[in-house]
Design a protein that fits this description.
The chain is an alpha+beta fold. The protein has one domain: Immunoglobulin-like (Sandwich), CATH 2.60.40.1220. Helices cover 19% and strands 29% of the residues. It has a five-stranded mixed beta sheet with strand order 4-10-9-6-7, covered by helices on one side. Strand 1 and strand 2 form a beta hairpin. Helix 2 (178-187) packs antiparallel against helix 3.
């Protein structure tokens, strides 16, 4: 059963679950083969000066419920990298078809590199939008050594696109500000979408910061990363 988290903002108390999906592996799968989704406590990095006991090297910012629910056909993906060294990254999105996975989007190249902190990825309009009712698996890989793929780190998580309820759609149309919309998603337990908003649009006002930080609170399984997440820089990219 998922750990409970209390989200408190503007006098509203929401009881919901949001332990983060934390995944790490030390063997990079072929691009056309989706990695197994699961949890790991591995902490191996890419050989930087950061001590291995300082926490996990790669954290996908996604609820542990599998698959996580989204009502967006162009959702936002976010992850945290602990290591200070900049290494090539690879992002892949797979569509589930029966018991197999088909690669639908791949991002890599010399200009797509990791930075210490939180990276927020928005897919370009040229990328295919997701389809309601379908399940997807997204993967982030840190290419520690291009000549030794078995030493690379990767993490993956599942999402499923659900139809948006008319009542939620109506409320979102009336509430235009980012913080208000994030709260509406959280109230409907659409935590993947709530996280996407507060990370993509990192407001500086106190109420916005408090709400964003509350989404990271009470992550009891990985306490070493809490303070780092709180103080992380947030970088937004579109590919």
């Amino acid at each position: 059963m998922a750990t409970l988290l209390s989200i408190v903002s503007l006098g509203t108390s929401l009881s919901t679950a949001i332990p983060l999906t934390v995944l790490a592996n030390t063997k990079k799968p072929p691009p056309d083969q989706a990695p197994t989704s699961g949890r790991s406590s591995g902490s191996r990095g890419c050989g930087t000066t950061v001590a291995s006991n300082s926490g996990l090297a790669l954290i996908l910012l996604s609820p542990t419920d599998s698959p996580a629910k989204t009502v967006l056909t162009r959702p936002t993906f976010a992850w945290f990298v602990r290591d200070n060294a900049s290494v090539p990254m690879e992002f892949r999105l797979y569509e589930r078809e029966n018991n197999s996975y088909k690669l639908v989007k791949e991002i890599k190249g010399n200009t797509f590199k990791s930075t210490s902190g939180i990276t927020v990825l928005t897919l370009a309009l040229s990328a295919p939008s997701l389809e309601v009712g379908k399940q997807y698996r997204w993967q982030v890989a840190l290419v520690c050594d291009s000549n030794r793929p078995s030493g690379n780190l990767f993490a993956s998580s599942d999402i499923q696109v659900a139809p948006i309820q008319p009542s939620l759609k109506s409320q979102l149309e009336r509430v235009r500000d980012n913080l208000g919309q994030a709260k509406l998603y959280a109230q409907e337990n659409l935590l993947f979408d709530a996280l996407g908003i507060v990370l993509k649009y990192p407001g500086n006002e106190t109420q916005f910061k408090d709400f964003r930080l509350s989404l990271f609170n009470n992550i009891t399984a990985h306490n070493p990363e809490l303070q780092v997440l709180y103080n992380s820089t947030i970088r937004s990219v579109e590919r």
